[in-house]
Design brief:
about 350 residues, three-stranded mixed beta sheet, about 10% strand, binds 2-acetamido-2-deoxy-beta-D-glucopyranose, 14 helices, alpha/beta, about 40% helix
Length: about 350
């Protein structure tokens, strides 16, 4: 016997079958975004890049140190003009490219290099001017995931390998703007006074141990999973935006031990910002005295929402704001600031020469 077509079973079945489809469309609105994981091939690509850097650097290191006393070698490399590598990490257009064009406008290529890591899953406008052909082989990135650490290590390694004259590595995002001229920044980093006294350069990286949320962040990958490599006493937090010396960049590239832990996926994504912990924790464990513990990139955390800092919009942008953002509690000025909304560009361009690049 055939059941009548109007059986209540059919609509029920249809409803049941369509549930997974409905869930598929609605779930992203209710669940936190799924974390992308780092695939083995991606991991191997990075390792082979890192091995090249380590091989090159150790070859050069032994040559340097068998022939020249350290001080003389450092001075002679200064005479050859060391460079700053600007590492742009982005997942959108570089909104302030025109400001950066002016920042680099009168600077010889002998003083800097640019490298861009852009999420290949996002379509960005063609890169022009100083940014043309500066894209490095990039992989997918996602907020609150170790993919940001990978991207930063990839930038460091690519820059180290590309040019042995890269002596400092400054991480910049598409929301960052410069607060001073290139020359001001360059003379600050390559301080001839330090050099003549044969003092080693320091990295400018924020390293804090007094954050109220630190315990949650330490356990964001599961309870005790960071042990034995990273004890809670060693765990640090700091701004993602660093300026590292070549020596510290190499430490980062050589690291396997901490990466094994920091690459673990976050179970609690709301307390997990791996890129704000990996670099400060590692450098604090390995060479704390050669780190400023301060960042050079100003950010405003007042009234932050969902882990995002205050974003500046055009009504707030003024010469006074630039002067205020430069002021720091340390002995030196801030060099960069974030986050600015893209529509601040015109106002910033109007005060580029008269205010921002005046020194
Ligand atoms: C380091 O080694 C590479 C490859 O051997 C070479 O091209 C480069 O000039 C060397 N750099 C220094 C600073 O000696
Ligand atoms: C670059 O040089 C030009 C011409 O000398 C000058 O007008 C301009 O202010 C300089 N720009 C910067 C950013 O230093
Ligand atoms: C920081 O952001 C708050 C709003 O969240 C604003 O009132 C304040 O002026 C900002 N501070 C600076 C120095 O820009
Ligand atoms: C300087 O320190 C004071 C006191 O801790 C703090 O209120 C202020 O926000 C700090 N200023 C900057 C620019 O970080």
């Amino acid at each position: 016997m055939v059941s009548p077509p109007s059986s209540p079973l059919i609509p029920t079945l249809i409803l049941l079958l369509s549930l997974p489809i409905l869930f598929f469309f609605l779930a992203p609105r209710f669940l936190p975004p799924r974390q992308i994981s780092i695939s083995l091939p991606d991991e191997l690509d990075d390792l082979s890049l890192f091995h090249k850097v380590i091989a090159m650097d150790s070859a050069n290191f032994s040559r340097r140190h068998t022939r020249l006393p350290a001080a003389k070698s450092r001075l002679s490399s200064t005479l050859r003009r060391p460079k700053i590598a600007f590492l742009f990490l982005t997942n959108s257009d570089i909104h302030f490219a025109p400001i950066w064009e002016r920042f680099f406008a009168n600077v010889t290529r002998k003083q800097y290099n640019i490298y861009i890591h852009a999420d290949p899953f996002v379509k960005i406008s063609p890169l022009t001017g100083v940014f043309k052909d500066k894209l490095i082989p990039s992989k997918r990135t996602q907020r609150s995931s170790p993919t940001l650490i990978s991207a930063e290590r990839r930038l460091l390694a690519t820059a180290m390998l590309d040019d042995p004259s890269n002596a400092f590595f400054a991480l910049i995002s598409q929301h960052c703007i410069p607060l001073h001229s290139f020359n001001y920044f360059y003379n600050f980093l390559f301080d001839l006074g330090r050099l003549s006294r044969d003092l080693e350069f320091s990295s400018y990286i924020e390293i804090l141990d007094n954050e109220p949320t630190l315990w949650d962040r330490y356990n964001a990958r599961g309870n005790n999973v960071m042990l034995p490599e990273v004890h809670f006493d060693d765990f640090r937090v700091g701004s993602q935006f660093f300026v590292l010396t070549r020596k510290h960049a190499l430490m980062v590239i050589k690291d396997r031990k901490l990466w094994r832990k920091f690459k673990l996926p976050c179970l609690n994504v709301h307390s997990c910002y791996p890129e704000e912990h990996y670099f400060p924790t590692m450098l604090s464990m390995q060479d704390p005295n050669r780190c400023s513990h301060y960042t050079l990139t100003r950010v405003n955390w007042t009234e932050s929402v969902d882990g995002h800092p205050h974003t500046y919009y055009p009504p707030e942008v003024s010469p006074e704001l630039i002067h205020t953002l430069r002021e720091s509690n340390s002995s030196y000025s801030y060099m960069f600031a974030r986050k600015f909304s893209p529509d601040c560009l015109n106002l910033l361009m109007q005060m580029a020469e008269s205010i921002i690049f005046k020194d």
